[in-house]
Design brief:
Elements: H1 5-14, E1 18-20, E2 32-35, E3 39-43, E4 56-60, E5 66-68, E6 74-83, E7 87-93, H2 95-98, E8 102-104, E9 116-125, E10 129-131, E11 136-144
Antiparallel strand pairs: 1-6, 2-11, 3-4, 3-6, 5-10, 6-9, 7-11, 8-9
Length: 177
């Protein structure tokens, strides 16, 4: 089951969902709009290596906006800190942003119960596209979980700003012979 807009508002008021800052005008019929934060992160090596830490550079989006380029992966973040210890959050790009040719969070939309922080956004444009800090970039929906809950305590907890991949820190499972 998915929370409706009025239920998202009620859940924020009673603490079942945390959205900071919460703006009632960003509540949709069954989601909450999130805005693009002011920082973008870009991997600096030509090849990204999944088995090592990859260097990045960060930039602040100026008031005049920043032009995203096709073929580049940008890590952005939500202005809002969002999370819940009860509901499963899912983040998707807004359809109006998709119609501009920007893929937002298409490979990892599910959040863990117990994660609280700014969400890192994977941004990939089809054509050059100017984006602005504060623009509505995505929407988060909240789903009811069933069964015992094991809260998230991972490496991205309390994230502020875009977070590069920590995949290289994950242990490689042994291969059975």
């Amino acid at each position: 089951m998915i929370l409706t807009g009025p239920e998202i508002t009620a859940a924020v008021r009673d603490g079942r969902v945390r959205i900071e800052p919460f703006i009632s005008g960003q509540v949709n019929p069954n989601s909450y709009n999130v805005r693009l934060g002011e920082t973008l992160m870009i991997y600096t090596d030509r090849v990204i290596d999944a088995h090592r830490h990859n260097p990045t550079r960060s930039l602040r989006i100026p008031d005049s906006g920043y032009e995203l380029q096709p073929g580049e992966l940008y890590l952005g973040h939500t202005q809002e800190q969002v999370g819940s210890d009860i509901f499963v959050p899912l983040l998707f790009g807004r359809s109006s942003v998709g119609r501009l040719g920007l893929f937002v969070e298409i490979t990892a939309p599910i959040g863990d119960i117990g994660f609280h922080g700014q969400w890192t956004l994977m941004l990939s444009p089809i054509r050059p596209l100017r984006v602005y800090a504060g623009m509505k970039i995505g929407q988060i929906m909240f789903f009811l979980s069933v069964g015992p809950v094991d809260l998230y305590h991972g490496k991205y907890q309390d994230a502020r700003g875009p977070q590069p991949s920590g995949y290289w820190q994950d242990p490689i499972p042994a291969v059975a012979s």
